[in-house]
Specification:
Family: Belongs to the glycosyl hydrolase 13 family.
Mean pLDDT: 92
GO molecular function, one term: 4-alpha-D-(1->4)-alpha-D-glucanotrehalose trehalohydrolase activity
CATH topology of one domain: TIM Barrel
Distance between the termini: 68 Å
Shape: elongated
CATH class of one domain: Alpha Beta
Subcellular location: Cytoplasm
GO cellular component, one term: cytoplasm
Strand order of the largest sheet: 11-12-15-18-19-20-23-24
Protein name: Malto-oligosyltrehalose trehalohydrolase
Number of helices: 14
Structural class: alpha/beta
CATH architecture of one domain: Alpha-Beta Barrel
Length: about 625
């Protein structure tokens, strides 16, 4: 664990337990193989570090950090801390490895021992990129980092630029989404542990793929959350668990805990971006918000590493300040997920109107949201019972700062049956939505399996060993879905291993003709986005959307027109320019002077400028 001195130039090789060289306090010589342990526990009167060799006393400094330097500790030592008279050994809050689960001892891990091959990697910028979200446990049958490596060539062939990996921090149990993590710096062992994660990142970089890691700083999971025993880490609760003390007494070190964790993923694991879960749940009343502080620290590290490092937020605030530059008074986050874009597209495709979808059934909701990013922009939100959000200044804020998507882990997994869009609409209608996402000025994101209209569901699953906790999660999940109109019989048991197994992708589907056809059109859409730069143009003030109640949409992308017929009947769509060529279409279309006729549930990308050679 890094203490205050480490941040002043004497940084350890890794958090938790580090090998150090140099003089001990008082001038005594420090042997070269001495291992130092440190932990922040400002309110404790005694702290011991437990090793196989026994319990060893630690000394306290003025900042509330406890230290011990032990010359006899082996390199891969397991260790835990004992606080005051509590006989329960606790893992290191900054643990780098938990080989025996979140309740067991921590294990020293040497980040310098891994031999990286990505020395020539210069990073991957978010603007212009296509993001692909995946969950390690269900992306492959084996559910490991090494198994995921075997599928990376599929992503390269698809045209993906950034792989967004759902949380891999340690959580209790074997299977889970990852959002109930409690030891944020330790990689989940059932996936393969820290070295296997590094192999995945290294393999991605070798193929030109950047890696974005999903991290959760807004709460801790319900099992193994021992932080409050060490110090004033917690302050209140939110919908998911205890929240962090970001602005009260002792919060300087708590904030440092978050920042150091984020920097560690970039520095030690070579990731290219972090997706920050639910930042609206971060309660911080300081003049400098944690997001702004984190953004500044990451930018500084980016300059030192000489490669782009990206922060992407999930925010329910609909506040453009999140993605506004710090120089302009914003938080400085590079981008955020935009659920309003998803909701408006989902309702247009499926007709669903329950819950938070209700407002998006209003006439013109989809084109309005495409033009302005936020549908709720200082307007009434019936789901919240109040006005919500703020308008995006489309002349100042580019579209690449907002991720657009048809599906995410949330929007699939938080349905009772975990049904994908492919279970709700025809492949033709899904492809129309894909064309809108991939030809928009926003940063497109796909959810694993979407590119072939996967037939497998993606459900909510967990595997807490504690029977009482397991039953509480099971009961709570059914009650939550009941409030949204689903019957108890429709809700799979999240603790049943079959729920987890059902959620694994079936890669054999790619060999089936209809799945293969969907995959090929996704691939061609991404290739077209790459070959025609106007499709990735992020300037929202130049983005025009024509729409009609029939319903059809026309996206103006420079000289290109992306025409989508979302209706159930053929549509003749007027155009502002003469169409000269069909660059890509999901069905046969008929061109006419200043118009195009499309079959039901189809799209076409048209070029309105004739080839100079013609």
């Amino acid at each position: 664990m890094d203490g205050p001195a480490d941040r002043q130039g004497d940084r350890l090789a890794e958090p938790g337990a580090g090998r150090v060289v140099g003089p001990l306090p008082g001038g005594a010589a420090r042997p070269e193989d001495c291992v130092r342990f440190a932990v922040w526990a400002p309110e404790r009167t005694r702290v011991l570090v437990r090793l196989d060799s026994g319990d060893h006393p630690m000394s306290r400094d003025d900042g509330g950090w406890w230290h011990a330097s032990l010359p006899d500790a082996p390199g891969d030592v397991d260790y835990a801390f004992l606080l005051d008279d509590d006989p329960t050994p606790l893992p290191d809050p900054r643990s780098a490895r938990q080989p025996n689960g979140v309740h067991g001892p921590s294990r020293r891990y040497d980040h310098a021992a891994f031999e990286w091959s990505d020395h020539g990697w210069t990073g991957r910028a978010l603007p212009g990129s296509v993001v692909y979200e995946l969950h390690i446990g269900t992306f492959t049958e084996a559910g490991t980092f090494d198994a995921a490596v075997e599928r990376l060539d599929h992503l390269v062939d698809l045209g993906v630029d950034l792989v967004e990996v759902m949380p891999v921090n340690s959580f209790d149990g074997v299977a889970g989404w990852g959002y109930d993590g409690v030891l944020w710096g330790a990689v989940h062992e059932p996936y393969g542990g820290p070295t296997a994660f590094k192999r995945l990142v290294d393999a991605c970089h070798a193929r030109g793929l950047g890696v974005v890691l999903d991290v959760v700083y807004n709460h801790l999971g319900p099992s193994g959350a021992y932080l409050d025993r060490f110090g004033p880490y917690f302050a209140g609760r939110n919908d998911w668990g205890p929240g962090l003390n970001l602005d009260g007494a002792g919060s300087d070190e708590v904030r440092r805990y978050v920042v150091d964790n984020a920097l560690g993923w970039f520095r030690d694991f070579h990731v290219d971006g972090l997706r920050l879960d639910a930042v609206h749940a971060l309660v911080d009343r300081r003049a400098t918000h944690l997001l702004e502080e984190l953004s500044a620290e990451v930018d500084a590290l980016s300059a030192g590493l000489r490669r782009p490092l990206t922060l992407i937020a999930e925010s329910d605030l609909n506040d453009p300040a999140v993605v506004t530059a710090r120089e302009a008074g914003g938080r400085g986050i590079a981008a955020q997920w935009s659920d309003d874009l998803h909701h408006s597209l989902h309702v247009a495709l499926t007709g669903e109107k329950q819950g938070y979808y209700a407002d998006f059934a209003a006439p013109g909701a989809l084109p309005a949201t495409l033009r302005g990013v936020f549908f709720h922009a200082g307007t009434w939100s019936s789901f919240r019972g109040r006005t919500h959000g703020r308008k995006v200044d489309t002349a100042r804020i580019p579209g690449h700062r907002f991720l657009a998507y048809l599906q995410t882990h949330d929007q699939v997994g938080n349905r009772a049956a975990g049904d994908r869009i492919s279970a709700l609409v025809s492949p033709d209608r899904q492809l129309c939505a894909a064309a809108i996402v991939l030809c928009s000025p926003y940063t497109p994101m796909l959810f694993m399996g979407e590119e072939w209209a996967a037939g497998t569901p993606w459900q909510f699953f967990a595997s807490f060993p504690d029977p009482a906790l397991a039953e509480a999660v099971r009961t709570g999940r059914r009650r939550e879905f009941g409030e949204h109109g689903w019957g108890e019989a429709e809700v799979p048991d999240p603790m049943d291993p079959a729920t987890f197994l059902r959620s694994k992708l079936n890669w054999a589907e790619l060999a089936e003709p209809r799945h293969r056809e969907v995959h090929e059109l996704y691939r061609e859409l991404i290739a077209l986005r790459r070959s025609r730069s106007e499709l990735a143009d992020p300037r929202l003030d130049r983005f025009v959307v024509d729409a009609d109640e029939h319903p059809w949409l026309v996206l103006h992308r420079g000289a290109l027109r992306v025409v989508c017929n979302l209706g159930d009947t053929e549509a003749r769509v007027p155009l502002d320019r003469e169409p000269h060529e069909v660059l890509l279409a999901s069905a046969s279309v008929e061109l006419a002077p200043a118009a195009v006729t499309l079959p039901a549930a189809s799209f076409a990308v048209l070029d309105t400028e004739p080839d100079p050679a013609d």
